[in-house]
Design a protein that fits this description.
Length: about 220
């Protein structure tokens, strides 16, 4: 999944960029509103993370101009200005969601995935891939209508791969997203093996020496 981040706080931008890359996202970041607006027009992003307090061109103006040009990419506004008026103005201009700083990276990740699912015609609670159905709020997985019991790690790995279909996620990206501490050397391979055994051998493709992906 490709993310466009427009954030003038360099330290915050670097932190968000680093965290999202570890979670398997592709990300481009810009510090100025005018540069970000050009990127919105020129780059094909799946989700835009837009700060309101930007130099040269304010975030609300960036959003307004982008929507006026017909850009329909989901936009998540982030700002320290936690006022109802700012939230309403941003949403009225076409923002899809709103997150107040400081925010938790797990929450940001969840909101990005929700926006992506919504934009691609899926409900926030359901994700379908061939014969696989995932009920995200209940963390339940079904194969051809039959409930399949997955461990927490297996479920998280499946969701990560499905949310990044056709994108090769490296071993390092997957391990940093799935494990709080350094995992055992073969932990990832075991979880991949278990998912293939439970959901089908063809589900996950191995790119030798690089990582894994699920076909689009």
């Amino acid at each position: 999944m490709k993310i466009l981040l427009i954030e003038d706080d360099l330290s915050l931008a670097q932190g968000v960029e680093s965290s999202l890359r570890r979670r398997g996202y592709q990300i481009e970041s810009f510090l100025r509103g005018d540069h970000g607006l050009l990127a919105i027009r020129d780059l094909s992003a799946d989700v835009i993370i837009l700060d309101l307090n930007l130099p040269v061109l304010d975030g609300l103006e960036v959003l307004s101009q982008a929507r006026a040009k017909g850009v329909t990419t989901p936009v998540l506004i982030t700002t320290a200005r936690d006022t109802i008026a700012q939230r309403i103005k941003g949403l009225d201009l076409g923002a899809d969601d709103y997150l107040v700083k400081p925010f938790d990276m797990d929450e940001l990740d969840a909101r990005i995935r929700a926006l992506y699912r919504r934009a691609h015609g899926r409900s926030n609670d359901e994700l379908k891939y061939n014969d696989i159905q995932v009920l995200t709020s209940a963390r339940q997985v079904y194969l051809k209508g039959e409930f399949i019991e997955l461990s927490r790690r297996e479920y998280d790995l499946l969701l990560l791969l499905l949310d990044n279909k056709a994108q090769v996620l490296t071993r390092r990206q997957l391990e940093e997203s799935l494990y709080e501490d350094e995992p055992e050397s073969n932990a990832l391979e075991v979880h991949v093996h278990n998912l293939r055994k439970k959901l089908g051998k063809q589900l996950i493709t191995t790119v030798r020496g690089v990582g894994y992906f699920v076909a689009a």
